[in-house]
Amino acid sequence: MTGTSGNPTTCRINFQLRHAGERKTIAYYLDLTRERIPTWAGINLGGNDLAIQGQGYDGRCAFCRYFRKALKNRGIRFSCTCPFEIQDNTCTWRVKIGSVFFDQDLLEDEEKYLTYLRRVENDPRDLEARLALGVIHEYHGRFAPALASYWAAHDLDPDDAFIKERLQDLLSLLQQLLLASEQQKS
């Protein structure tokens, strides 16, 4: 999930401020998001522009989604350009996770999520449900459950390239977060 040069890609959020209080609200929710969503992405706020640079699976997308939702709920006006989000010819938003684009409605629909949970409870060998749960958890920045879902899917289909890709990316991210945590302690 890197750009054409192999470098991390950048999501840009441009704020259309109406008054000075909105800048404080943005700063507050930026700090809150940093506390709640683990990420290895670079986050730089300058003027009315926020750049989030990363590779998607490094928590960048979960961070961006959570932050934008908080801004929207507070009525902060902004525009966003993201290389991991596209609108197809049917005006459906799709989000890139790994090498595949997924329907954003699938990723954010609580009923569909619960349906996949029930399917796995009823049939632990349901590969589609395991993969869907992995993708949904990853999108929301819940990396441990995503890893567990992908691992269970890998047990069912050890040759699937997408499953291997997601496991490698998430394990790499968790290793980076662990090393950063250890460095902070020492």
Automatic annotation (TrEMBL):
Q: Which UniProt keywords apply?
A: TPR repeat
Q: Where are the TPR repeats?
A: 127-160
InterPro entries in the record, alphabetically? TPR-like_helical_dom_sf, TPR_rpt
Give the SUPFAM superfamilies listed for this entry.
TPR-like (SSF48452)
Q: Does the keyword Signal apply?
A: no
- List, alphabetically, the Gene3D superfamilies matched: Tetratricopeptide repeat domain (1.25.40.10)
Top-level lineage group: Bacteria
| UniProt key word rRNA processing | no
Q: Where is the signal peptide?
A: none
Name the UniProt record assigns to this protein: Tetratricopeptide repeat protein
